[in-house]
Amino acid sequence: MDPREPTHLGKPTDYSGGYDPALLDPVARIGGRSALDLGAELPFIGVDVWNAYELSWLDHRGKPRAAMAEFRVPADSPNLIESKSFKLYLNGYNQTRVPDTDTLRTMLAHDLSGAAGASVSVQLATLTSPQSAVISNLAGEVIDDLPIEIHTYGPPDSSLLYGNPDAVTDETLVSHLFKSNCPVTGQPDWASVQIAYHGPRLGRDGLLRYLASYRQHAAFHEDCVERIFLDLLRQGGLSRLSVYARYTRRGGLDINPFRCTPGGLLPDNTRTARQ
Fold first, then answer.
1. CATH 3.60.15.10 at 141-260, yes or no
2. Is 48 an annotated catalytic residue?
3. From the candidates 111, 189, 231, 254, which is the catalytic residue?
4. Active site annotation includes 182
């Protein structure tokens, strides 16, 4: 089987099963990274922040419990985890008795780390915890209202990007107009994208046109963010760069990849209004 081809995505689904770690589909990152001419030494660090809003299980008495979960998959893990398989795996807890939340956290971390090939952190929050209700805006200047015409919607076109080497700046830009598509089902994936950098001032019209050129592009969330990061970095002159995409959820899960130049800080888990 092609290592980029998940076994569950795009196929009929049976939700009647119980807890089964074998439902998780690892997808080798090397496939997408080879297409970007990336070798073993990555020019970025980062993390994929997943949020699960529909996690439920049975306690030792058989009483249903529910929580929100945050999972962090390191960007240097050999595998990403295909999202439909992730949902099937989490749904397997619905009728599974787990003695306590510490056991649940241990089971989740063990299974997800095994699929990713690296340590995955797990945090659980009750539905009434303060952090579960916090909605924030991504920091930065929104560029979505620029009065420009756009004609390119795919494939991604890095030639639209340009910078001004005579105007070095430190800024953070945000767009809420990003859309890509699932590479198997063709379903739309919507996201807000935050780009922070230090270097030649990016042409904002070119940046917005570039982000729009993903509109008919089919790729996993993680691959899209890595392509954006590399296309910006290859413009030259950037001493610091980070790209953070906050995707809207599907099936109770959202995926939020973050990539930055080495030495940068990993992000908080800012939940936006669409999430």
1. no
2. no
3. 189
4. yes
